[in-house]
Structures are given as C-alpha cells and as structure tokens.
Amino acid sequence: MKFLMISLCLLFTAMKINSQSDLESNAKNHRIGWFITPEYGTMFLEDHVGHTVGFSMGFKLFKDHLKVGYFNYGRSGPINSYTISTSLPDGKTYKGKTSVDLRADHGAFGLMIAPSFKLKKSKIEFDFPINIGSIGAGFYLAGDDRKTPDNSRVSEWENELFEGEDAAFAGMFEFGVRALVPTKINGLQWGFGLHYTTVQGWKTFVDPSGDFFNNKLRASAFINFGSKQRE
C-alpha cells in the first residue's frame, strides 16, 4: 500500500509538472526529457514464481532515443508466501526444531541505461533497459518463528542460526526489452517487458551456490509517465 501511494503521488506530481511545461514552451524545444515508471513484476525462480514491485526514473536524451536513470525493485516477503524448508547446522536447534521454514526477500538498485526507438508507422515504443547495480538478498524466519524464545531481535537469531550467512550483498546485471503503448494522455504509456538477470558473488547458508536469483527471467508490467514525447 505504501508503494502504491508513493507511485500515485509521483504520478500526479509528474502530470502537473508536464502540463505546466507544455503551456510554457513547445515540445520541440525540450532538449532533455524525464520519466517515472512504477512497475509490478514476476520472477521465474527455480520451482515457483516470485513477485516484485519497483520503479525507475531519470532523463531522456537525444530526442528521447536514450533513457538514463535509476532503477529499484524488490521481492518482499509479505507478497511472497513461498517458504523454503532448511536444516539447521549440526548441533543447532530453534524452538526444539532442527529445521525451519524460511521466506526469501531481496532488493535490487542501480543505474539504468535504455536505448529507445519506434518502428516506422507505429506509435509503439521499444526500449532495451540495461540495469547495472547491486542486490541485497537473504532468507528470514517467518510466521510464529519470528517470536524468538528469549524475546531478542529476530535478526540476532537468524544471524546465529545461519552462522552470519542469512543474507548477503552482491553485484547484479540485467538486460531486457520493453514495449510501451501510448494512451490518449500525451506522455502516459503502459507496457510490459521481459528481463534476464544475473547475480555475481552472492552466497548464503541456505543457497551456497548463489543460484537462487542468478540466471533468471523476470517479467514486468508498468505505467510510464514523462515529458511530452517528440516526434
């Protein structure tokens, strides 16, 4: 709900700025444009589909043929109910159990570069986002297991149970293709995309191979609002 409210605020602010800009000057005089793109996504993981929310924002250059900006999206636990049964290290127990059910979450952020073009005689725009950045990802206790036996912080127990490897940071690289369909509101588009994600050097106790988020496909659906497009 918080993400939705922030996205709506950004959208209404962008609409007001854009309408004022159109009244003040002709679109052909715009040398640098801008965009804000809230999105919902799905990640095709090993044996289930995860859900993500995020956004990108930045500038459009070279007559809107290049987008440069910031991207951020995450796979949060509250919208991903999938659990992973994990055996604890030898000699360790939690509430008398030698294994626990964990949920996974992650956040990705960094630089987005997206060449963009339109097909001849078509108003549909295509761009090719290249995301270069970092992720922070890990696994955490869920449900009643978040009520720790000694009332200490659950993060302390997670760190102790998994020997400091309950979560980790790593570099990531993602590239994809998106189709942006115009609406009757100039500058407002909707669309969908497909992305391929790699993660380098991520390792946790639950996933020592680092393959949980690595070499995975992600699909996205979004709305894109920005400065008036130039023909």
Structural class: mainly beta
- The value of Rg in angstroms is 21 Å
User: Which CATH class?
Assistant: Mainly Beta
Got a strand count?
10
Number of helices: 2
CATH architectural name: Beta Barrel
Number of domains: 1
Low-confidence stretches: 1-8, 19-29
Element order: H for helix, E for strand: HEEEEEEEHEEE
- The residue-averaged pLDDT reads 88
What's the CATH topology label? Porin
Amount of beta strand: over 45%
Helix content: 10-25%
Shape: elongated
Can you characterise this structure?
The radius of gyration is 21 Å and the shape is elongated. Strands 1, 2, 3, 4, 5, 6, 7, 8, 9 and 10 form a ten-stranded antiparallel β-sheet that branches. It has a single domain, classed as Porin (Beta Barrel), CATH 2.40.160.20. A hairpin with a 4-residue loop joins strand 2 and strand 3 (66-75). It has helices spanning 2-24, 154-161; strands at residues 33-44, 49-61, 66-75, 84-87, 99-118, 125-127, 130-141, 167-182, 188-200, 216-226. The chain is 13% helix and 49% strand. The chain has 231 residues and is mainly beta. It contains two helices and ten strands; from the N terminus they run H-E-E-E-E-E-E-E-H-E-E-E.
SSE arrangement:
Blueprint lengths: L1 H23 L8 E12 L4 E13 L4 E10 L8 E4 L11 E20 L6 E3 L2 E12 L12 H8 L5 E16 L5 E13 L15 E11 L5
Antiparallel strand pairs: 1-2, 1-10, 2-3, 3-5, 4-5, 5-6, 5-7, 6-8, 7-8, 8-9, 9-10
